[in-house]
């Protein structure tokens, strides 16, 4: 456990937090309520998470709100989630802007209806100058889709003669996957008890520290997030190097 004060300058505080918000449906079912009630409660927990990041000076928060695969859920649940996203966007954007949060979306935006797409664009342009917290909502997002769209964009440049195939290396792919302008997530949190990544940020999570809790997403509170941060603070991140190399970084630099 870290005894250092919680400041963004401390390496013990993650710069970028990535979260799978799981367990809304079970939270509602345990109360004998429809699943959509769980998603509504989940939207409130999103605010808990944003507040926590702002208080701790975490620079970037990426939330998995809707996966490429979630389109396959029952039609009424997808419809209810769309309404919820639209309402949340309409309701929250002014407050997020006031608090210095920059909002962006990653994923296949064209799969959403026009009203949601317009709200997404509005939220992004309204908050684009903010720098206190970079909030990214992954919606209709899949890690495999992300890598495929990066590969396609490289292929387009090769076909047009702007890029040599020899120039395609890890750095070239890293520049074209989503979140390329942010540091890679330092800490990944998943609620809901499952210990998997579920097609979230497959490229970006290569060296991210993973933390799982059985708590359901609507139950999220600051104490739980603090437990995750305390656990993170006690870990040694070696990035494929040895512990000795990490302890003496003058002899070998730690890769980004
Ligand atoms: C996973 O729980 C959650 C989702 C598929 C939707 C996430 C949506 C929210 C948290 C609400 C609003 C978000 C924003 C950004 C405004 P699940 O339904 O898979 O739960 P289960 O595993 O218990 O069935």
UniProtKB/TrEMBL annotation:
Record-listed substrate binding positions: 23-27, 35, 39, 67-69, 71, 73, 190, 196-198
UniProt: Mg(2+) binding residues: 22, 209
Gene3D superfamilies recorded: Decaprenyl diphosphate synthase-like (3.40.1180.10)
Pfam family, one: Prenyltransf
EC number from the UniProt entry: 2.5.1.31
Catalytic reactions on record: 8 isopentenyl diphosphate + (2E,6E)-farnesyl diphosphate = di-trans,octa-cis-undecaprenyl diphosphate + 8 diphosphate
HAMAP family: ISPT
UniProt subunit comment: Homodimer.
Protein name: Ditrans,polycis-undecaprenyl-diphosphate synthase ((2E,6E)-farnesyl-diphosphate specific)
Gene: uppS
């Amino acid at each position: 456990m870290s005894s250092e004060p919680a400041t963004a300058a401390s390496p013990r505080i993650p710069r970028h937090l990535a979260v799978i918000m799981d367990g809304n449906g079970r939270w509602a079912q345990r109360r004998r309520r429809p699943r959509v009630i769980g998603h509504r409660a989940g939207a409130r927990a999103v605010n808990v998470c944003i507040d926590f990041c702002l208080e701790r000076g975490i620079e970037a928060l990426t939330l998995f709100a809707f996966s490429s695969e979630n389109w396959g859920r029952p039609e009424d649940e997808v419809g209810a989630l769309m309404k919820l996203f639209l309402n949340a966007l309409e309701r929250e954007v002014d407050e997020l802007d006031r608090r210095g949060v920059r909002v962006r979306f990653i994923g296949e935006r064209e799969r959403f209806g026009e009203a949601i797409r317009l709200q997404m664009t509005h939220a992004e342009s309204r908050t684009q100058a903010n720098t206190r917290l970079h909030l990214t909502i992954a919606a209709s997002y899949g890690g495999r889709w992300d890598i495929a769209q990066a590969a396609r964009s490289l292929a387009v440049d090769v076909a047009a003669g702007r890029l040599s195939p020899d120039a395609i290396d890890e750095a070239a792919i890293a520049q074209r996957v989503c979140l390329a302008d942010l540091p890679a997530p330092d800490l990944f949190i998943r609620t809901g008890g499952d210990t998997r990544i579920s097609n979230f940020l497959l490229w970006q999570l290569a060296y991210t520290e993973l933390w799982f809790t059985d708590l359901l997403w609507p139950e999220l509170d600051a104490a739980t997030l603090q437990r995750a941060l305390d656990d993170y603070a006690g870990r040694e991140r070696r990035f494929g190097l040895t512990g000795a190399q990490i302890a003496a970084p003058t002899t070998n630099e730690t890769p980004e």
